[in-house]
């Protein structure tokens, strides 16, 4: 690894992304190699730039951060991913871990926590923010969760979210409004869901989802 840790930042909010890039770029031992505004761009840019660490948001257009993490770590196993997100729920945390993320911080993390996570992950370690680490410890110390907690492991976080709304009877325009997505993004996600579940139409998808307890 070079003396400076080469970092790529991925977030769909330009102001936050550019602010974080300026912050990290000012720190000794960190070089901001590039940025990306969504998951698909992140996969392409990571392949091109080969950074030491990718700092990844979760909820993004076109491709969410969980699936982008899975593709990047499969494509370039030496690239470490630190998820930096507003999402506090356990489902997102463990989905990120399963996808190959080696760090998970909430967006309230301070500069020192972010720098420590980037440095640790660049050295091959796994690191979680204090609040997240506590939840991980509590999870493994608690009652074992049945293995079949995720009935649709082939779906991304965003696709499961949309499937739940489909199962609840929401139309595509309603889903777009509720999740602040474009109608085209919702249509694309719904098509991906149908393909991954091997269903022909919305009615069949709803049956699958409700059988699994969604909606």
UniProtKB/TrEMBL annotation:
Span of domain HTH luxR-type? 148-213
Q: Does the keyword tRNA-binding apply?
A: no
Q: Which Pfam family, giving just one, matches this sequence?
A: GerE
Keyword terms of this UniProt record: DNA-binding, Phosphoprotein
Presence of keyword DNA-binding: yes
Location of 4-aspartylphosphate modifications: 57
| Response regulatory domain segment(s) | 6-122
Q: Which InterPro entries match?
A: CheY-like_superfamily, NreC/VraR/RcsB-like_REC, Sig_transdc_resp-reg_C-effctor, Sig_transdc_resp-reg_receiver, Tscrpt_reg_LuxR_C, WalR-like
Please identify the protein, giving its name as recorded.
Response regulator transcription factor
Q: Which organism is it from?
A: Kribbella lupini
The uppermost taxa in this organism's lineage are: Bacteria, Bacillati, Actinomycetota, Actinomycetes, Propionibacteriales
